[in-house]
Amino acid sequence: MTAMSKRVFVAATSLIALGLTATVHAQGSRPEAAGATLFQNVRIFDGKGSSLSAPSNVLVKGNIIAQISASPIAAEQGVAVVAGGGRTLMPGLIDAHWHAMLARTTPAQSFGDVGYNNLQAGDEATDTLMRGFTTIRDVGGPVFGLKQAIDEGIVKGPRIYPSGAMITVTSGHGDFRQLTDLPRTIGGMLTRMEQIGGALVADSPDEVRVRVREQLMQGASQVKLTAGGGVSSPFSPIDVTTFTEPELRAAVEAAENWGTYVVAHAFTPAAIQRSIAAGVKCIEHGTLMDEATAKLIAEKGVWLSQQPLPDALRTGFPEGSVQRAKADEIWPGIARSYELAKKYKIKTAWGTDVLFSRALAQQQGAILASLVRWYTPAEALVMATSTNAELLALSGKRNPYPGKLGVVEQGAFADLLLVDGNPLENINLIADPAKNFKVIMKDGKIYKNTLGN
């Protein structure tokens, strides 16, 4: 190499390094630090108990709850004061099964223009935050860019724990190809759904490893595989078991090497049991599980992420369609799966799984409130706050927001809702956030305050 070419090489290498550094700094940047806020005269639901505290005061400094006291806390200069008036201060809500890129879009739009989809998802993210959901675990979709935009303050929205593309097999849940797309060329061109990062097909342990590692490289906090059939996919019968155990094990090994975990979409006993045998830490749905499978989930300490799916989601599929027939097969199992989860004291998380419907997305709080079919209001709200936060913590060092979520306690993140009323007595208050959530705070920043103080 000549002296001139060496100088060119060094200069180019330096520029690349500078570019990489700038990218890292951009990805890691955050909006300006929050100031300080003092909530006076509030009754606290801490996210763990079954009753409200005595009248209390809560001081937030930056993005952390700094002090909680039954005695007055002096409001220092520059501290914003919120006069609670005896209202309920509680943790921001957490949805453990959300699809930020798919909640509002139509199925056809989801394969369309990426720019439009991101703008629509950004608007929905703001609505999600304004419903009081300060954190969501995204279990399938090209959400990394949206998460970055929210974290950098470009878009208002919840914290996002991203899975990235859901990983499936040929004809599995998440494979939205048409028959005209077959046969698949191994190592050939990606389909549209794969190009946009919605779902990825992997038909061997080696392919699974590649796809899992790609999601982790992009910042996935956990990885999702579809271990059995699903409702919305056109060629995925509910009863089928998709991934082999070696394929699932490959995903689990790759995720564990990164210090995190795999979640598996699974309805049937066979799909659930195979996932558990492979080391999966969280089952999504579990709606058709039997007694023996429920006992196995409990014995192995595996998480069950359930959704009290509203009937409007089922009837949203056209009569006579394959999807409607599969939904009709799934829905009767919802109540029994909750009963089994309670009977065997399974570690149960809560989520919504809203897809392709802005109207249903707006019912996010009402879907949570519907848990009172099986739980007390306090039990339901604990599930959607501190319990869901425990599940998020399974991501270990891949946790994008290390710290305490889902609780009102000293040292926790200041993700807070001020509710006009007592949701432990009337959980339906959370179904009308526009009316009943007077203050919404995320990461120490107030995004809504209708009290005027």
What's the gyration radius in Å? 23 Å
| CATH second-level architecture of the largest domain | Alpha-Beta Barrel
Counted beta strands:
18
Tell me, rounded to a whole number, the average pLDDT: 90
Number of domains: 2
Distance between the termini: 69 Å
Main sheet characteristics: 8 strands, mixed
Estimate the strand proportion.
15-25%
Unreliable spans are 3-32
User: Which class do the helix and strand fractions yield?
Assistant: alpha/beta
- In the CATH hierarchy, the third-tier topology of the largest domain is known as TIM Barrel
CATH superfamily of the largest domain: Metal-dependent hydrolases
Q: What characteristic shape results from the CA principal axes?
A: globular
SS element count, helices? 15
The CATH class designation of the largest domain is Alpha Beta
> Could you estimate the helical fraction of the residues in percent?
25-40%
Explain how this protein is built.
The protein has 453 residues and is α/β, with parallel strands linked by helices. The protein folds into two domains: 36-92 and 408-449, Urease, subunit C, domain 1, CATH 2.30.40; 93-374, Alpha-Beta Barrel (TIM Barrel), CATH 3.20.20. It is 35% helix and 19% strand. The chain is built from 15 helices and 18 strands. It has helices at residues 3-28, 114-130, 144-151, 192-195, 205-218, 245-257, 269-278, 291-300, 311-315, 322-330, 333-343, 358-361, 364-369, 377-392, 433-436; strands at 36-44, 56-61, 64-69, 80-83, 88-91, 93-98, 133-138, 159-162, 166-168, 199-201, 223-226, 262-266, 282-285, 303-306, 348-350, 416-419, 437-442, 445-449. The strands form four sheets. Strands 1, 2, 3, 4, 5, 16, 17 and 18 form an eight-stranded mixed beta sheet that branches. A hairpin with a 2-residue loop joins strand 17 and strand 18 (445-449). Helix 5 runs parallel beside helix 6 and helix 7 (269-278) packs parallel to helix 8. The protein is globular and about 70 Å long. The model is unreliable at 3-32 (pLDDT under 50).
